[in-house]
Amino acid sequence: MSVPTHSVIDTRRPQMFPTLELTEIERLRRFGEVRSYGAGEALAKVGAVGHGLAIILAGHVDITQHDQWGRRTPIVTHGPGSFMGELAQLAGRPALVDAYAQGPVEALIIPPERLRALLVAEAELGERIMRALILRRVGLLETGAGGPVIVGHAGNGDVLRLAGFLSRNGHPHQSLDADTDPEAKALIERFHIDAGQLPIVLCAGGQLLRNPGEAELARCIGLVGPIDPNRVYDVAVVGAGPAGLATAVYAASEGLSVLVLDCRAFGGQAGASARIENYLGFPTGITGMALMARAYNQAQKFGVEMAIPDEVIGLQRPDDPDHGRFVLTLSNDERVSARSVVVASGARYRRIDVESLDAFEASSVHYWASPLEGKLCAGQEVALVGGGNSAGQAVVYLASRVAKVWLLVRGPDLASSMSRYLVDRIAGLSNVEVVTRVQVSGLEGGDGMLQAIRWRRAASAEEVRQHRLAIRVRRRAGRQEFRVDRRRRRCRSSTVGDQSPGRFCRRRRAVEFGQAGRGGGRRGRAARADAACLFGRGRRSLAPRRRSRRRASSAGRWRRCAR
Known about the structure:
CATH class of the largest domain: Alpha Beta
Strand order of the largest sheet: 15-14-13-18-17-16
CATH superfamily of the largest domain: FAD/NAD(P)-binding domain
Low-confidence stretches: 461-563
Structural class: alpha/beta
């Protein structure tokens, strides 16, 4: 992965690597214990779970990253007053960088559970430390340092599936093209990999995976671990989208033990939005990933445990509604016990009713537009199906990156299902054409490569031609059928959402957006969401209905929910 021209380590270095005063260090001593290290001794190793945050009291520590060949690249050297760590130390996960003592070192080690207590108890210092941890993770994401290495053919669906999974979970990684990258070819020869076994993934701990599933990859890099079957959580939240993460933050801030489960990644549909501008508190807008990452980190700050990816497939109600516990069954046969359960499963994407859709969902039909799609289809043409806010946000995002966007809408106009600010912005985009009162009637192509899209609407027969784009009208059953057929352009596709892995598409890309929830339109007709606290005697909402009542009764409501 290439390093951006203006790296965060250059633009925000003082915030990434602050130095604490002696008085501030004294305030933090109660959260940890002092340890001594000899020259050359490791304070942290890539792939190994460390002891937590380390505040350097004496000596110097070199922070480095290493590649798949063992070559080390220096990042920074910490001296007295500096602290060592990033977001992995907040959650007690494997380290993403190496740390070795230059000489004798004395450090104050704060374990993850005490670090979370520090962030809450010491508000001012906690804010500075938390900001540094987040920025350091951003720096690692820019370079891919410390994460797994994906080796495969560029544009291969499984390569894009794995890269998308890691990106959605905020985990650094690198991708090497098996066709053009000399290091990729050397690794394939070194491990005697057949072409049919690609892609392979090299984990930081040295493990080699052959085209792994997402759960297997997550366990290899320490993103998810086994769940204690004997522990009973106060609240188990199924779904890590906005509703699920909000529930987790509110519950954990009241002192309840919380576990969040999701089958793929945190953030849900909102996390895949290129830009959100009508969210309260962000007048200049914010990317969906940045917004959801803040919520995810905030939940971890309050001690929320994350089990992502872990899929819930069953719920057993307690025998005794007043004193029993719910049991969640996971797809890997693990079980989770909780006194209350919140189901925040989010939106279910609407599938267009056309023949052979399944053949293209794994390669050319997708359900949101992320920066990955924007990069892959730069300078090309895309078709978007849907008239909700998700489609509108995708149009605005892609219009500045692709040659043209065709927006296909079933309704009479955009205003009935899309926020006004998006309607006005789309109207001002010269490379966007909105086609209303239409419905996709067919997809054409072969081997997973989409070559043409057909749609129908009641209009006069006509033929419109543009450069490398033809719209042919065919009359069927008293209705007119439009056919969009684009030739000789190339566009790579990828997996988006919970769909199957994508492949290399040389002709056409289609992106489908269901009108789901607030993110997909005001009506939200495609949403299948449920965020309720389940009890033996019916269902009660965990979220406070009125803000004016929340402060006075939130603690009592959470306690009632936990019983």
